[in-house]
Design the sequence.
């Protein structure tokens, strides 16, 4: 017995329709995501080939900024392609440990400050 099928048989008709809708939309989203990934790959291949041509012709990195962001314009300036590379920063478990240590120090200092505040000479 398939638990998913058993669950669908017990569901209200409107819930079954909603399930069908969600599965249909997600299926289309998956197909679109695949097409976008292929488009993105083709674009980066074409841009990479163009950059390589410029580098061969003029030497060095002709179009690249420090972070890799680039802009390409059509000859008449009416069309533009921008390549923007987002900077990703990943925080590993080491950073969480460091944060916990800082929080612990701050808590201890706050308690120490509070006890010193109550002490009078």
Sequence:
């Amino acid at each position: 017995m398939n638990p998913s099928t058993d669950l669908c048989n017990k569901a209200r008709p409107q819930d079954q329709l909603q399930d069908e809708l969600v599965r249909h939309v997600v299926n289309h989203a998956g197909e679109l995501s695949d097409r976008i990934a292929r488009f993105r790959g083709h674009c980066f291949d074409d841009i990479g080939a163009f950059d390589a041509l410029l580098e061969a012709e003029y030497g060095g990195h002709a179009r690249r900024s420090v972070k890799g962001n680039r802009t390409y314009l059509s000859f008449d300036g009416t069309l533009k392609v921008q390549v923007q590379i987002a900077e990703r920063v990943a925080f590993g478990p080491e950073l969480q440990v460091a944060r916990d240590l800082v929080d612990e120090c701050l808590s201890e200092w706050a308690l120490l400050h509070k006890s010193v505040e109550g002490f009078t000479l």
In short: Strands lie at 70-73, 80-83. The helical segments are 3-10, 13-58, 93-118.
